[in-house]
Design a protein that fits this description.
The complex is a heterodimer. By secondary structure, chain A is mainly beta. Chain A is 0% helix and 47% strand. Chain A is built from no helices and 9 strands. Chain A has a 5-stranded mixed beta sheet with strand order 1-9-8-3-4, with no helix packed on it. Chain A has a 4-stranded antiparallel beta sheet with strand order 2-7-6-5, with no helix packed on it. Chain A is globular, with a radius of gyration of 13 Å. Helix content of chain B is 0%, strand content 53%. Chain B is built from no helices and 11 strands. In chain B, the strands form 2 sheets. In chain B, strands 2, 4, 5, 6, 9, 10 and 11 form a 7-stranded mixed beta sheet that branches. In chain B, strand 9 and strand 10 form a beta hairpin. Chain B is globular. In chain B, 35% of the residues are buried. At the A-B interface, strand 3 and strand 4 of A face strand 5, strand 9 and strand 10 of B.
Chain lengths: 110, 113
């Protein structure tokens, strides 16, 4: 399975946008890109997913590079509640499993 | 909202005991999953089930078994607990295909002494 690479940690100021990068240079044409986050003392929660086009939902935006070898999760206005570990995951088409890496720990500075 | 409930937040057992971790979801989801989470290793899939009485091995099934007798309940069983099974265990459920969100419980922190 293709792997993802994320920075171990990032910091951002409250009420500013946050861009969380993910590299997946070995992605195949049918791999979906999923993002989950895990707040302290909770299980992970779904954030967003996409294949080729950029995606928006109420939580975040997902920007996918044209060659699909990288993607960026965008939190438009970070709040303290967004402090979490963010996981970028590739899901091969037809594969029911998600393989979580170690993610990026996002710290929000008040 | 989907609710996935794990029977215990914290559990302490002894080496060699048979341990049952229970998970219940209230949204009639077909698919259910068991993961363990360890520092530096992320979440690793142990077993999953896509229907009652059906099960599939994940990436690290050794030392574990599962049971799904009813659609809403998925049990993880440690046949003979060992200290290397001390971990955070997370259950998830999902409806439909692979792009549907997985909904997670808050986890059971299991310590094997």
């Amino acid at each position: 399975d293709a792997k993802t690479t994320q920075p171990n940690s990032m910091e951002s100021n409250e009420e500013e946008p946050v861009h969380l990068p993910c590299n997946h240079s070995t992605i195949s044409g049918t791999d979906y890109i999923h993002w989950y986050r895990q707040l302290p003392s909770q299980g992970p929660e779904y954030v967003i997913h996409g294949l080729t086009s950029n995606v928006n939902n109420r939580m975040a935006s997902l920007a996918i590079a044209e060659d699909r070898k990288s993607s960026t999760l965008i939190l438009h206005r970070a709040t303290l509640r967004d402090a979490a570990v963010y996981y970028c995951i590739l899901r091969p088409f037809g594969n029911e499993k998600l393989t979580f890496g170690t993610g990026t720990r996002l710290t929000i500075i008040p | 909202d989907v609710k996935v409930t794990q029977s215990s937040r914290y559990l302490v057992k002894r080496t060699g005991e048979k341990v049952f971790l229970e998970c219940v979801q209230d949204m009639d989801h077909e698919n259910m999953f068991w993961y363990r989470q360890d520092p530096g290793l992320g979440l690793r899939l142990i077993y999953f089930s896509y229907d009652v009485k059906m099960k599939e091995k994940g990436d690290i099934p050794e030392g574990y078994s599962v049971s799904r007798e009813k659609k809403e309940r998925f049990s993880l069983i440690l046949e003979s607990a060992s200290t290397n099974q001390t971990s955070m265990y997370l259950c998830a459920s999902r409806t439909g295909g692979g792009n549907q969100p997985q909904h997670f419980g808050d986890g059971t922190r299991l310590s094997i002494l």
